Amino acid sequence: MKQIANxxxxxxxxxxxxxxxxxxxxxxxxxxxxxxxTETGLKCGKGTHEDKGFCVADAQNSAVETPxxxxxxxxxxxxxxxETQFARKTGVTLEATADSSGDPTWDPAAHPLVFITxxxxxxxxxxxxxxxxxxxxxxxxxxxxxxxxxxxxxxxxPFEPHGLGVSPxxxxxxxxxxxxxxxxxxxxxxxxxxxxDKMLATRGRPHHASAFTDSKGNGRALxxxxxxxPFVLDPKDDNKVVxxxxxxxxxxxxxxxFIDPTGKxxxxxxxxxxxxxxxxxxxxxxxxxxxxxKLKKMLPIHDSTPVWIDFSADNRWAYAxxxxxxxxxxxxxxxxxxxxxxxxxxxxxxxxxxxxxxxxIYAVGKGEGSHNQGKEIGLVDTMIMETTDRPMNVFPTxxxxxxxxxxxxVSSTNELWLSxxxxxxxxxxxxxxxxxxxxxxxxxxxSTHSGAFVKYNADWTGExxxxxxxxxxxxxxxxxxxxxxxxxxxx
Length: 491
Prior knowledge:
By secondary structure, the chain is mostly beta strands.
């Protein structure tokens, strides 16, 4: 492997990015558009200021670094270094390492609960104010922008980060990106210093990352992509690949992957490629053993574009969104049988998120497989899905092409934080009033997808409390107790 050196990381200038690939079953790229949103009266949050129509991070919240990457140590190709059998199986290689030590980027004593999310160029013709992949750290209470980093790896066509994960202990940030549509990379970033630590090369384009705790209590990170099988990292052992499955194991290619609250099962939305079967063919939901990494079940969903999976915290139910038919399907986890289906109320639902008590599931109307410019959220009553297929209601979100919904881990806030990757902000949705109670424009007008709420102590020990995969730790236990109370009342 050739030596890799002197790659620089710098803040992206406000510029038009071109040629970005689209996420999921998006429309053909439309005419490029720039700017923070289609709204007027831009209001920038703390830690940012307005500049030519964009919210730009204040100087003290940004920094320029020049990391020096090195090839992995000798012996790597012989399988005695970082590489493992699961790395080989899933096609993941350690391409480069770097020294990520340094000074902290913010004060965790002053900002103990933060939201970490992506900042990218945009895609599908809706392009923002940056040209490089990066991330931002936001105070989850005050909405102050604490840190903004973008990474210039001297790529010809930096790929839009479509998700972001943080290791369960808060130490590492996993940012999916790459050079063009085929040269995929996961950047592993030191959350304390904001510096790159490793770069993983993947078989396909990276998509998402999330945290989970396995059945033995070990903190893990699940990563995957388009044409990239799911693989699991051990954050405490040099981020080595310690689990995963290839598409032969799964029986087909998956789209999105989720680990259940017990850490024992991985559920995935399976999608046949068009060269394998008709695009109108019903696809399936895959259930795999997340301990033995073997396929257990294939469940029908009667939709050609399955997307998201969300679990009730008491482990009784699983819910899947179907983007083509705009439905939500409910499964009994004990029998693996479909027991209910409802219209989502929105076109092309993407992200799903259960309410704290489990009585309502919120479906983010992205327009998946359709117009891809959704601006609404649909509410479905989970308690009557067995007897009716009608949604409760639909509400506007002020969030163009919203996709992910991350539940704020403090239950009293009753907030969903929505990623708005075509209006270049995070919209805060109040689940009690069903209104948008606030928004956080991304630094320099960047696109955003997904994110993680992380609690940090003054000594920089941390804990992920909520992310792409749902709640964790104490908030998950709180939600599980609430779900158990209403779970026996289904018709």
